Amino acid sequence: DARAQAFAVLDLPPTATPEQIRKRHRELVRKFHPDAQPSLGPVAQREATERFTAIQRAYETLTT
Q1: Among candidates 3, 37, 1, 2, which has minimal Cα distance to 21?
Q2: What mean pLDDT comes out for the span 21-43?
Q3: Contact, 37 vs 44, CB < 8 A?
Q4: Residue 48: strand, helix, or coil
Q5: Nearest-CA neighbor of 53 among 2, 9, 13?
Q6: pLDDT at 12 over 80
Q7: Is the Cα dihedral 6, 26, 50, 64 positive or negative?
Q8: Cα–Cα distance between 47 and 40 in angstroms, integer?
Q9: Which of 6, 8, 18, 28 is a plausible cystine mate for 61, CB 3.0–4.6 Å?
Q10: How confident is the model at residue 1 (pLDDT cuts 50, 70, 90)?
Q11: What is the Cα–Cα distance from 64 to 60, expressed in whole angstroms?
């Protein structure tokens, strides 16, 4: 199920509150945003972008 997968991407329990979801999303965005690590090589940059995209999708799934 999409919601369960979204919680897994954000590493949160299914009982997480909207505040916890928002806080975790912000933490992960800061950590994995591709622009936050300009010294990454091309492979690591692509992986960061993929992870960032997954985080964004998970957040959207849980907040809409």
Answers
A1: 3
A2: 89
A3: yes
A4: helix
A5: 9
A6: yes
A7: positive
A8: 10
A9: 6
A10: very high
A11: 6
